């Protein structure tokens, strides 16, 4: 429509920034603000998931308590045991299936994957990480999923984070990428097994999310 007419000037659409797609690797993208128009539908569903399976701090096989708290929804959730890391159909805290993946979360993930060039994404797991100020995630690879052909889709909410994007060896140089509320990152193909981590979150209070960062990662795990 004519942008100078007043009719829809204050509609959500008119207020929306154009989505910016930044390429950060051969097959990796950050879709700036991509999740913002979805959030008022996503956040109530996320709250309902967390009411069923609350955040908990998992202990690594090496005996370290992770500083990021974790939950999951979908057919599979990520867990730690003394044996190692694995995906499980049951929430070990409750010995019950994880909450189902809310359709609006699934739709957001599939839509973002497609915007980054990955069609037919079929996520079966959504990991939910909560970082309070000071929490971090050290450099690691995600390699517990059965199928590395599928991308990983990550939605950042709340306080900003500095994401570290490394190479295929732990010792490879890392690039720093700031991730903000509403940003969606998509990784796949040749970048799927790159080392990555999150620097300690700086103190702050996000106007919508409070004093925390929440990250959703959608994967095809099984
Ligand atoms: C790059 N989470 O849960 S998500 C994780 O922000 C994890 O909570 C971080 O790493 C967070 O495992 C980063 C972005 C992400 C996820 C998977 C990747 C980046 C990736 C796999 C390969 C390369
Ligand atoms: Fe990871």
From TrEMBL:
One Gene Ontology term of the molecular function aspect: broad specificity oxidative DNA demethylase activity
Co-factor requirement: Fe(2+)
InterPro entries: Alkb, AlkB-like, AlkB-like_sf, Oxoglu/Fe-dep_dioxygenase_dom
Protein EC: 1.14.11.33
Domain Fe2OG dioxygenase span(s) in chain numbering: 122-222
Protein name: DNA oxidative demethylase AlkB
Renumbered residue ranges of the record's region Disordered: 1-21
Gene3D superfamilies given in the database record: Alpha-ketoglutarate-dependent dioxygenase AlkB-like
Entry keywords, A to Z: Dioxygenase, Iron, Metal-binding, Oxidoreductase
Pfam families, alphabetized: 2OG-FeII_Oxy_2
């Amino acid at each position: 429509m004519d942008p100078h007419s007043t009719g829809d000037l204050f509609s959500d659409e008119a207020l929306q920034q154009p989505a910016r797609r930044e390429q950060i690797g051969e097959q990796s993208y950050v879709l700036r603000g991509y999740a913002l128009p979805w959030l008022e539908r996503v956040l109530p569903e996320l709250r309902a998931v967390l009411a069923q399976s609350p955040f908990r701090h998992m202990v690594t096989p090496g005996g370290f308590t992770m500083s990021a708290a974790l939950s999951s929804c979908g057919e599979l959730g990520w867990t730690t045991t003394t044996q190692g890391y694995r995906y499980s159909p049951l929430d070990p805290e409750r010995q019950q299936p994880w909450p189902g993946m809310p359709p609006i979360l699934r739709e957001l993930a599939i839509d973002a994957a497609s915007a980054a060039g990955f069609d037919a994404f079929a996520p079966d797991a959504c990991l939910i990480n909560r970082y309070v100020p000071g929490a971090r995630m050290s450099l690691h690879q995600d390699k517990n999923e059965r199928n590395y052909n599928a991308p990983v889709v990550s939605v950042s909410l709340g306080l900003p984070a500095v994401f570290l994007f490394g190479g295929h060896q732990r010792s490879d140089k890392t690039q720093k990428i700031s991730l903000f509320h509403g940003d969606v990152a998509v990784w796949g193909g040749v970048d799927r097994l790159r080392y990555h981590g999150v620097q300690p979150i700086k103190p702050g209070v996000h106007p919508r999310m409070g004093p925390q960062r929440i990250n959703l990662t959608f994967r095809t795990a099984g």
